[in-house]
């Protein structure tokens, strides 16, 4: 049994005081956590165990406060267990399929879920603070001896030309990581948005850019349905700026993971992921320039 699964089993025994436990499978998606479907006394549950050094990127106290807000305003399954120190979270298992594994969904449902969230106003306990967050993530890589190259600073400077434009938009409750892997389609067809660890008040276009992080055209389609009108050049410009920012952000996360040895430990080259994100940021900014009004 893997070390992480031994830890999982011991944690479940301590919480539920039972030996009637089984690990069913690990869920795919994401590069920050280990997420398992387990059986406890014949009841299926989902357990999230944060990955190595995940605490550097998520404040678990803030996450728990926001999660309690989310559970009051959505029909998401209620959290059974949350440990602010370890970041371990347990919820009832919801039978369904993550949308990164299927194209069988209606974009109108995604628009409605996000719109419902955004219409609640700036009720998160924190602002996402993208610019402060990027600086923090850069500092983690620097602490491990990484020196950002000229290409990185050129792309970052390109993005920062547009920060005054982005700062004019109001902040509202946002998921913060609304990519397809965090949408789950239940067997009855109902779709839920899960995993709110990056939740905070932010520009609503940020969430839409997250959903289109791998398929820009899908993001444009969501924009059109979300607003109920044809997509404008400014919509695309706005969307692409956040698309670029997210790539810069995850570029730093990937570099950090590589620098602390996770590429070797997990057999997954995070340095190549980092390079891919930087290229994506550059391409998104070039497209954003074309749509500038």
Number of domains: 2
Give me the CATH architecture of the largest domain, please: Alpha-Beta Complex
Which regions are unreliable across 5 or more consecutive residues at pLDDT < 50?
none
Q: What is the CATH topology assignment of the largest domain? A: Aminoglycoside 3'-phosphotransferase, Chain: A, domain 2
Instruction: Please count the helical segments.
Output: 11
Q: Give the assembly state of these chains.
A: single chain
Beta-strand portion reads: 15-25%
Would you tell me the structural class of the helices and strands?
Answer: alpha+beta
How far apart are the termini?
A: 57 Å
What about the largest sheet? 5 strands, antiparallel
Please tell me about this protein's structure.
By secondary structure, the chain is of the alpha+beta class. The chain has two domains: 3-93, Phosphorylase Kinase, domain 1, CATH 3.30.200.20; 98-290, Alpha-Beta Complex (Aminoglycoside 3'-phosphotransferase, Chain: A, domain 2), CATH 3.90.1200. It contains eleven helices and ten strands. The strands form three sheets. A five-stranded antiparallel sheet has the order 1-2-3-5-4, covered by helices on one side. It has a three-stranded antiparallel sheet with strand order 6-8-9, covered by helices on one side. The longest helix has 27 residues, at 233-259. It is globular, with a radius of gyration of 19 Å. The N and C termini lie far apart (57 Å). 35% of the residues are buried.
At a glance:
The protein is of the alpha+beta class and 293 residues long. The chain has helices at 3-16, 60-73, 107-118, 130-143, 150-160, 163-166, 204-211, 216-227, 233-259, 262-266, 270-290, and strands at residues 21-26, 33-40, 43-50, 81-82, 89-92, 96-98, 172-174, 183-186, 191-193, 200-202.
């Amino acid at each position: 049994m893997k070390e992480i699964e031994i830890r999982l089993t011991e944690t479940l025994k301590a919480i539920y005081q039972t030996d009637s436990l089984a690990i069913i499978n690990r869920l795919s998606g994401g590069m920050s956590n280990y997420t398992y479907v387990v059986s406890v006394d014949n009841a299926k549950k989902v357990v999230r165990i944060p990955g190595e050094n995940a605490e550097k990127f998520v404040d678990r106290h803030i996450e728990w406060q926001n999660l309690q807000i989310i559970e009051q305003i959505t029909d998401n399954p209620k959290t059974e267990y949350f440990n602010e120190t370890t970041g371990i979270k347990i919820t009832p298992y919801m039978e369904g399929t993550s949308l990164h594994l299927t194209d069988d969904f209606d974009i109108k449902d995604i628009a409605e879920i996000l719109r419902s969230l955004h219409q609640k106003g700036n009720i998160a306990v924190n602002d996402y603070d993208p610019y402060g967050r990027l600086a923090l993530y850069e500092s983690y890589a620097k602490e491990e001896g990484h020196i950002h190259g000229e290409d990185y600073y050129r792309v970052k400077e390109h993005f920062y030309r547009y920060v005054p434009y982005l700062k004019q938009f109001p902040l509202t409750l946002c998921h913060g990581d609304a990519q397809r892997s965090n949408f789950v389609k239940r067997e009855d067809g109902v779709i839920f948005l899960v995993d709110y660890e990056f939740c905070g008040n932010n520009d609503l276009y940020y969430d839409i850019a997250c959903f289109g992080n791998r398929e820009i055209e899908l993001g444009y389609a969501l924009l059109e349905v979300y607003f109920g009108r044809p997509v404008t050049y400014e919509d695309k410009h706005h969307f692409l700026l956040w698309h670029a920012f997210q790539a810069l952000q995850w570029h730093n996360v990937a570099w950090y993971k590589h620098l602390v040895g996770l590429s070797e430990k997990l057999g997954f080259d995070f340095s190549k992921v980092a390079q891919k994100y930087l290229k994506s940021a550059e391409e998104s900014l070039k497209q954003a320039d074309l749509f500038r009004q």
